[in-house]
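Section handout 9: paired folding examples.
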Amino acid sequence: MKINGTPYRSVWVDPEDGWSVRLFDQTRLPWSVDILRLTNWEEAAHAIRSMQVRGAPLIGAVAAYGVALAMRADPASLDQVLPTLNATRPTAINLRWALDRQRAKLHNLPVEARAAAAYAEAAAIADDDAETCRRIGENGLPLLAEIAERKGKVNVLTHCNAGWLATVDWGTALAPIYMAHDAGHDVHVWVDETRPRNQGAALTAFELGAHGVKHTVVADNAGGHLMQHGEVDICIVGTDRVTRQGDVANKIGTYLKALAARDNGIPFWVALPHSTLDWRVRDGIAEIPIEERDGVEVTDLTGRTADGRIETVRVVAEGSPAANPAFDVTPARLVTGLITERGRCEASEAGLRSLYPDVAEQ
């Protein structure tokens, strides 16, 4: 995708030295476009943990490059590095998926061969995600095109950021939106602010604006009102983990949007790559670990002042504690369907098996 006309992926190896890893510092967006340089696996782990880099597919790719950086420095450190990287974020299954790929690739190799193999595998993971997301866009496009052709326009509501900043390229939930826009359809996106970290207001709005897609940022609690008044035609969100029966873990607040969509008869679709499927988990509410983040993300807000300074202010009364569950689980019964790189299906074990018969039992 492009920023100011320049094409980027969200993670890449620095072409000047051929080994350090570059990525956008997402904690600085949208106020400034800062590019980080990772030179060791500890910096990769910090970037993931601090959410300088976030989005389920992207943290998997960055973790894979973190392994490559570790193998460059000490190819005997594989068994130490993998569990530490895996512990940086607990909910997104893509992280474990990418690290499992690196483990399978490297574990039986001689140490002198590990660095080159780790870089090659990380690049393959990144390329796989970019192509996967492109196909998700193609498979989701007909849903938007049909509405736009029937009504003359389409209003989409999304939650959190599931665009190219959350993946290696294109995005999941935003990929069909980009393709619909590029095909000439009249697309408008309602962008939930997505408290407490405001990924919608900061990142999704930044992406859509850079691509020229019409959008409006709304408070998280405005979605139901918009649906009641016919202002939403379809909801599309991304996800950090999908169970074998189709339950969906996504940014906190997704479940409430799904409930409102069901009450108002609005399609609620979830876009995901194969790396987000967790065949080992059936009941998402009971089995998916939900990350509990620092309460300061709830009590404090960061923004740009009128004179251009970036400041953090407290918005909660002193002495009041804050809880901060980062994700919730939307049961499969509330999901209209899943958009994957292999096609669309119902949110159920039978639906997923119809698209992934080759991997369902692995």
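Moving on to protein 2 of 2.
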Amino acid sequence: MIVLVEAGKDDVVALDMPTRIWAGIDAGIDNVISSAAGNGDEAVVEVGQRIRKAGWDQVPWVNGAWPPMDQVISIRLTVAEWMFAADEARHAIRLYEELGDDESAQLGRDALAVIESIGR
């Protein structure tokens, strides 16, 4: 389900997804942050940290741990933040395909499908 809360690239959009997909997005953004920090790209680090913090604040943690991976959760980010996550997923999918990591590539495709539903 998509809920448009505001309007524009700064629009806030809530996307529902299984925890597994958000956990994959979170891990991918963590990789982007690590790489950007190593390259001195503070702007990317800032956006990535903001996305991860927003997710952490919204995940319905269970005794300090992720909820069940099949539990559907709702995450609200701006359209620009979702597009940042989509770009990361596209990049990661190519890398995972090159490595032959079909499971991780599929998780990226699943995340991308959820995020791209914003435009539908």
